[in-house]
């Protein structure tokens, strides 16, 4: 992979809530996000010189993570505590679309994509660890992540793909022939075919990434898929992942009890539908840490984070 270009920050904007884990931009350039107290926020004016305006749209009653805007103006929300939700942005009404699969409670829904046929696909990061102990799954390398599908009108998701290493961000190809799933714990993107001769099968899409991929975002069908890198590669962790299961479990037991401080190295990627990296931006010694999401609007990149109390506004790269 080519040497990264500098990720240039323009401003940090407080939004009145902690942990804007996912950020998505609407057609008017406003950014939507969910924060740890359960509120769904809409932030306007991020790319302007004036003060950004924050509006509370709804409260999920849980912990919202991945978001997906629907053509009718509603919002799909992966809530780590309540499952897959649909939120009316005009009235704030929250409806549960799915909270279990095959009798098992969904406790760590992560990211979601709506397809043009009305179906919805979403990820579950771990079946063993809840959100507040997420690092345990990364360390133990459980491979219990899943990709689920929900048919139009159905209340029962089906398992499309399992055995994923902390399944996280999700995006579709321009023609919706496949999905791209971020496997945070494996530093890779995986392709799951929806149509064609390999429908129902998966394969590597982009491997050996320079960091741990988190949320994915695609603004337009002809644009790239943006990949947030939640942290840089950690060689000792790569080595641990090759150790015996008992060793990994013991290390995970210690990790969930130790204080976690993200590094100051942040980065984002953009990939095309062949898996080619078209942009790689990074910054060392950043004051804005653990970038878990990225979207593009108004000629700027907007970064979200699991731990920060606002978002970062950065320069977008020049199109290649």
TrEMBL record:
<protein>
    <submittedName>
        <fullName>Strictosidine synthase</fullName>
    </submittedName>
</protein>
<dbReference type="Pfam" id="PF03088">
    <property type="entry name" value="Str_synth"/>
</dbReference>
<dbReference type="InterPro" id="IPR011042">
    <property type="entry name" value="6-blade_b-propeller_TolB-like"/>
</dbReference>
<dbReference type="GO" id="GO:0016787">
    <property type="term" value="F:hydrolase activity"/>
</dbReference>
<dbReference type="InterPro" id="IPR018119">
    <property type="entry name" value="Strictosidine_synth_cons-reg"/>
</dbReference>
<feature type="domain" description="Strictosidine synthase conserved region">
    <location>
        <begin position="116"/>
        <end position="196"/>
    </location>
</feature>
<keyword id="KW-0597">Phosphoprotein</keyword>
<dbReference type="GO" id="GO:0012505">
    <property type="term" value="C:endomembrane system"/>
</dbReference>
<keyword id="KW-0325">Glycoprotein</keyword>
<comment type="similarity">
    <text>Belongs to the strictosidine synthase family.</text>
</comment>
<dbReference type="Pfam" id="PF20067">
    <property type="entry name" value="SSL_N"/>
</dbReference>
């Amino acid at each position: 992979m080519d040497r990264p270009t500098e990720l240039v920050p323009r401003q940090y904007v407080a939004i009145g809530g902690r942990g804007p884990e996912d950020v998505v931009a609407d057609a008017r350039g406003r950014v939507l996000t969910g924060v740890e107290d359960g509120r769904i926020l809409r932030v306007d004016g991020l790319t302007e010189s004036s003060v950004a305006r924050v509006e509370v749209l709804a409260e999920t009653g849980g912990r919202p993570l991945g978001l997906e805007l629907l053509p009718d103006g509603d919002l799909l929300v992966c809530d780590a505590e309540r499952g897959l939700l649909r939120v009316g942005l005009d009235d704030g009404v929250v409806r549960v679309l799915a909270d279990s699969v095959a009798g098992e409670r969904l406790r760590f829904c992560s990211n979601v994509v709506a397809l043009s046929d009305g179906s919805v696909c979403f990820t579950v990061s771990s079946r063993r660890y809840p959100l507040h102990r997420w690092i345990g799954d990364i360390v133990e390398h459980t491979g219990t992540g899943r990709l689920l599908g929900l048919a139009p009108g159905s209340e029962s998701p089906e398992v499309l793909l399992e055995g994923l290493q902390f399944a996280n961000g999700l995006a579709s190809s321009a023609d919706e022939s496949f999905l791209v799933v971020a496997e945070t714990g494996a530093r890779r993107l995986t392709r799951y075919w929806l149509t064609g001769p390999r429908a129902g099968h998966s394969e590597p899409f982009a491997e050996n990434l320079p960091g741990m991929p988190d949320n994915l975002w695609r603004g337009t069908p002809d644009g790239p898929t943006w990949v947030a890198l939640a942290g840089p590669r950690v060689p000792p962790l790569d080595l641990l992942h090759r150790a015996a299961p008992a060793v990994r479990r013991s290390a995970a037991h210690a990790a969930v009890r130790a204080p976690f401080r993200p590094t100051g190295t942040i980065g984002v990627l953009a990939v095309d539908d062949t898996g080619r990296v078209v942009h790689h931006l990074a910054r060392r010694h950043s004051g804005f840490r653990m970038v878990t999401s990225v979207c593009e609007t108004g000629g700027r990149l907007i970064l979200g984070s699991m731990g920060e109390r606002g978002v970062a506004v950065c320069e977008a790269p020049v199109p290649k």
